[in-house]
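I would like you to sit down with the pair of lines that follows and say whether tokens and residues agree.
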Amino acid sequence: MMTVFLRYKLYHVLFWVIYLAFWTSYTMYSYGTPPGWALLGALIWFVSQGGTSYAAAYWLVPKYFSARRYGVFTLLLLAVYLAGVCLLMALFLPLVHYLGGEEALRPASFFGYALLANFYTLFLFAGVKAIKEKVQTDRRAQLLEKERTENELRFLKSQINPHFLFNAINSIYILIRKDPEFAAGTLARFADMLRYQLYECNAEEIPVEKEIAYLHNYVAMEKLRKGNSVNTRYQVEEQVQGFSIAPLLIIPFVENAFKYVSAFSHRDNNVEILLRYRQRLFELEVANTVDEHLVPPEDNLYGGIGLENVKRRLALIYNGRHQLQIDNSAGQYRVLLSIQTS
């Protein structure tokens, strides 16, 4: 199978073969030039135009244009251009004079013709090469940016998973001491959560139903752990289905609500979770009561890295397609996350 490189080179060879055949035939039939002399004249044009064109395309463009040294590139391009014109005049005019065409082709008139002819080939080759280099450079930059983004997302996700695992194991440990039967049920839910993280969270997006199932297990586990000390209102509207989202984006907000919910003995401690979906807008609203005297600073609400982690993931995945509003006032911490799905 012919390689792309070999095919590309053959195109160049074919182009110049056609070029030589055309100008040889044109000179023979238009001016009655003998075939050998006609071919020699075409070769002189090839050396001048081909040499300057390839010098510009494969030396000047990669070394100076792609390096954004536009001033040096312009000066050298003009120098190569004029050198090609002078070479053409130095080689072709003596041949014309030898064949007796000096009256038809004077140096002054030929100079203008040589300028125009070399201009077309030189700037055609250089222009095509410059465009190709620009496209390849942009493509490499896009691939590098994509790779960087994917690596960063994997790193961020790797930070999230141990955070969840630690809290879940801690919850089970507490339940084992309080109620072994509840702990057994929670352990089964925890196994489902682990299975989800290990086998289903590697995709860029997952069906929202799977994320909700994971959320349901987490909320159920927290309700068992908190018992009657926290009133939990958990609602998923029927419309929340049939679309995909990035995995493990909504869990940190819910986890935060249970982690920092108030522990009042004289009034209610509440956690509210609402998921809704309308006109391709997915919304998560999470609120919890807080003890204003004990609540940690906002920067520490997610164990130091959680909030910035989630914000960074949102910026990478849903840049320009999400809003995150956080309000911490009047004894309540409230988060509203809106994501425009595709």
Summary: The domain at 179-340 is CATH 3.30.565.10 (Heat Shock Protein 90). The chain has two domains: 4-141, 179-340.
